[in-house]
Fold each of these.
Amino acid sequence: MLLQEVAAAGAHPLSGTVATWMWLLPLLPLAGFVLNGALALAATYRRGPSDPTVHADHTHGAGHDTGHAGTAHPDHDTAHHAPTRHRYAGLVSIIGPAVLFAAFGLALSIFGAMTRVDHLEQPFVQRYFTWMATGDLRIDAAFQLDQLSMIMVLVITGVGALIHLFSIGYMRDDPGYPRFFAYLNLFVFFMLVLVLGASYPVMFIGWEGVGLCSYLLIGFWFSDTANADAGKKAFIVNRIGDFGFLIAMFLLYAHIASLDFVGISQRAADLAPGIVTAICLFLFLGCAGKSAQIPLYVWLPDAMAGPTPVSALIHAATMVTAGVYLVARSAVLFALSPVASLTVAVVGALTALLAATIGLKQWDIKRVLAYSTVSQLGYMFVGVGVGAYTAGIFHLVTHAFFKALLFLGSGSVIFAMHRAYHATHSHADAQDMRNMGGLRRYLPWTFALMWIATLAIAGIPLFSGFFSKDEILAGVFARAGHSTLADVSWFGIPGNVLLYAIYGIGLFTALLTAIYMTRMMLYTFHGPNRTGETERSHLAEAPWVMTLPLVVLGVLSAIGGWLNIPELMRFLGPPQWLHHWLDPVVGAPALAVTGGAPVHLTHQTEYMLIGAAVVIAVAGILFAVARLKPARLVPKAQAVPERGFARVLANKWYVDELYDRSVVRPLVGGSRRLLWTVTDKWLIDGLLVNGSARLTGFFGRIGSYWQTGNVSTYAWAIVIGVLVVLGAFTLR
Amino acid sequence: MGLFYTFNFYLFGVLAIISAVTFVTRRSPVAAALWLVNTMFCLAALYVMMDAQFIGAIQVLVYAGAIMVVFLFVVMLLNLGHASDVTDVMSGKTRLAAAIAGLLFLAELFVLWKDDAPVPIAPPVEPAESGVIAQVAAPLFRDYLLAFEITSVLLLAAIVGAVVLAKRKTT
Amino acid sequence: MIQEALFFSAVLFIIGVVGVLTRRNAIIIFMCVELMLNAVNLSFVALSRLYGIAGQVFVIFVMTVAAAEAAVGLAIIISIFRHHENVDLRNINLLRG
């Protein structure tokens, strides 16, 4: 077995370093989950599930028309608004973030150990025990540390620790405080299992686990039906994707009898081209579910029903990028199948465009960010789809920074809004941008930091998003000229035409991104305030525990691009660091896509591409500033519905309605009529269950008629029986 | 096989059947029981004539001597010795049906008998020795030891059961 | 002699059966059952001349079971009598379904 060879070799440069402690990385959050979960249960046990204070808090939160903003409500009859903190809030506030910071510290030291090793070509695999052994299939519970998983671990633990810190403030008065941190810790555990797993099945554990945590956290305020439904939607849509993942694993096992990454990378070349394409497409179906791509993106905007830190951590920074990670991890396979790679890129581009158009007309601040996330995920898939794996991962990292910042910033805004409305007993929507406006005066820190993130996502030079987005677009452009993708045809369309089209869509999406993000900022922070006269006095910046993570993320969003400075701008610092770092993992597949030689664009072309991207971004921002008039906006309560095309966008292209008509309703109707009425009610309940009951009842009545209790009857029965049996023998 | 032997064999067989018929037709339980004892004696004689001397002996001792005495004892205890006022025989229709069933039974047995007459599968036992105690005891305590021991448990259970069932409830 | 013994056995058995079917007195029926057991014993003994001594061993077991059965059965009859003041089978139908 290959895993054993690698592990048993012992000569791996990382063995003996701190990297041998990598099993502790996921175990720390797991310990946090256990402790926090125990505290949550203990509190329930001590206060009783029907504790009046808990109950009052919950129903009140649900009664709010959004119920999203996370602060629980003390009883309104009390004159002052004394927060009812959870009994164990202090302990949980220490445990929850502490395990994350510890994990991040460990990740940093492991990272340091890795940088000190010169040639780290092979992944560092640690076997713990045999998980499954059936026939010639043997799956080990093993973790694999290489450059790609290291980057992911750093992002997850780093951004995760900041978001945990933020949650201390955001969830402060929530009655489910320990439960929240328990789920959040559990999520980080599964996410680390996902990125550290040394084989597809181990990865799948994490994959399913993060889905579970996502479900639990979307429906965190489950007493509100809408939240619970959103959780269910996410869970069910993700099942479709997981089906693809499973099929891909089965195909892999059936054809090369290996499911660990090392073994697959060595045997991938044995696969027939058709099989590789099928495997990659099924894998991508899994990615489309987890990472919210067409056609399975519909769950992510609804997932914003969860608390905002959850949106930041799970539905922006980490879990939804698992699909991108999966494609990068399976780069060996995708590089063998240009058709599947093109599919990934095309779907990514279309998703980016579609989500960006929807983002133009959303009023809920978190929904704008949600569609922005879907759109940026599309970008990442364009990157990994065209074989620019480094660019995709690069954008994943920078996106984690600025999107986490945007979400936490929006959380800060919602926190302030909710507090203001709460103080005045208003039931207005704390998340609707039409109720905001002019918040820069009240939330200066949030305002400044969110602008940094906006400039980053729009692609303004020197901010992190500029570098990563430019690298993706440049990668697409370069591969349109020369790559294996350009030479194949995809549904009759020549690959190079398709790639140029993707590049065009990417540019156009960048324009839309700049517009909708500027729109969001304008409506939220600029212009006159629309919150309300009395509420205005209650608007204030959140406590430092929430602002500090914003500052850190703001710095990262600004300088994150230095991870991978293009060759062209080497005057800014050492170029292409991430590219070199990831080279042992994705270098060979990337080269395979580009036909053996690294992509090369002339400096002139590169300058032109960068220029185009910058012009587009600036144009988008200027266009938004010029056209949108925050002053004319009215609060949500007085708003008139959109007309024409804007209404189509505001209603998200009616995709949910389309799915409802084409999938959900036929399914529900069919289930109700055929499965429930005919099969279940009539056939199973009526014929089989009640029918067999009636049949046995019938025989029972006949039997009980003979059961006279009189010995003579039984004697007669025996004698007649004997006579019949003997008679049968005589007739033989 | 001398004529004397054959005569006696038939004599006891026929006597057994006559006694059995008489037993079944008696109204009084005491008379019936005594006729049954007579049948058992005849059977004991048949056993001895078929070289099963030990079985013949315990037939007399256990069956006729012990079991039937218990029957008589119960009959007397319950004061059922006289013929009951109401008839204890089923209706004529039932009796006719029983007779038909019995004859049918017998007929079927004869038909089967003719088809499959018993065939020896083991060498016939040496007549002079077959029924002596040692011949019976050897397989009983060797091959069937477990069954024999279990029988003792059965008897114990029967004793306990009889005591529990027949005990007068004091409350 | 075996054929004759088996013939006697069959006749005795059927007399017992007819007795069980026609009588109502529980004790008489009990005795009829004993008669049937005896008939079977007769065929065991008869066939043991052909098939070996095991037939006689079996007769011993049958007698033991008959003794146990008589003890328990008569105890039951006594308790029934205490309840009904007679042993007429028509009164005993507690097991009616």
Amino acid sequence: MAIDETIPRLGCGRSIDEVWATIKQPPTAHENGCVQCRTARASLAKLAEATRTLRDNDAVDPSLQPRHAVKDAIMNLARAEVRRGSLLPVYRAEQGGITISEQAITSVIWFGADALPGVRARRCRVHPGPDTADAPRSAGTSDIAVNLRIAVASGTDIPGTAELLRQRITSMITAHVGLNAGAINITVEDFYDV
Amino acid sequence: MSEHPLEARLISSHLIADLAARTALDTPGVLRLEPTLKNLFTRLGKGTIQNLRRTDTRTTPARHDGVFVTVHNGIADVQLDIATDIAFAALNVAQVVREQIARTISHTGLIPGRIDISVLAIEHPPTATAARPPRPL
Amino acid sequence: MDEREPVVLTRPDDLDEATVVARAQDGNLDAFEYLVEAYQDRLFRLAFRMLHDRGDAEDVVQDTLVACWRKLPLLTNVQAFSGWLYQMATNRCLDSLRRRSGHPEVVQGPETLQTTADSFTGPGAGGDPAREAEISCEIDGLATALLTLPPGLRACWLLREIHERSYAEIAATLKVSEQTVRGRLARARAQLAEKMSPWQ
């Protein structure tokens, strides 16, 4: 790997990196007097200019975009392999029953959290509540437990916001899922700037 | 049942799948049936869609997108995957769907067997803005 | 097929990227679609300048984003998302070049040069045909020189100079030290500068 780390040098002993680093500054006394440095500076400056042109041009060049079919193929596959999380048993009758996907409950929780200023709900896990995990009641609803990770706006009152969020999640789960939320664990994992 | 053995045999699992799908879609709060390849794979092991079409055994399973029906000995089992409208409580919607499907099956002369409902998604209806008021069930 | 226009959640454009990534990790398709839209063009540009073939570049974009969907739940640090995506795309480009290595590198032919020149609508030209010609000549000169670099150098140079990735991230992507990245960059610059205007 030694050769990989070698930085090319000009005949006068200066490295390309040194010339490159000061390319935007006026030439030094040595650079003014050294033919090799002058040539290298000129050609590196030309490269820098071309690099900028390539970067700016490519970024807006419509011919340098993938066809729509590429995104369609990606999204079709993602839909076909969509992840719903686990299916939580929430009702059991004599024959058959009802399950609700973790993802369906998660989106209700995100929806509830999004309405609170200063909160961005991230990853969410939903489990059957501890008393019903083994055997869902023969007829009736079972409780669920929620683990939610969030980011909060810097300067947010965390305990107050977490309490509001808990209440919100509880009422959202009752109204939109039809279940009773038990433990709601909230972890603040990040701050974001407003 | 035994009085109409011929009739019962005429009622295919495809018809039940059709009826179950229609019954579900007519239930307030059901946005759509939710087909995913993954559901199919987990339920049928390694079978592909083509394999499924060839698995025409005596139990004759029928699959609509989001509905899976088997009929045997005059009993119809239904598995249905749905997305519900967030304006409704998903569990209530699913319960109504179960009851309605059981009733619909009874009307055909078959016996409703196992009826499993999975709510895979809870969403706003596609065209709705936040303005749509919740309708009570 | 199914018209999926949920307004359930805050639109991904109004969230920070880390939150969008976290929601995609939990299977939210709208969040994932947002990420696809945010990154597909960038990844395509990287792959196209690496491979100089539209079809191959599209394959890299598709493979990368499909792998992204499948592996997303395993990503532990949401902040590392873009670096992780660039890493997958770069490795796929290098694999693609390795598979090709039996065949000699095809350097840009006149036909593609023309296409690039025709499609040019970049900033700074201001409808001045002389300046436009100059710019497209500049771009083609650099793009052609780029294809003569060994793949490792080319990847280094593109990631740093065009995509502005950090030295640490490029080092992790290419599984080399930061010192090696600096060395490769210097050599890439020297070779490119020399190709474009020979200095000896």
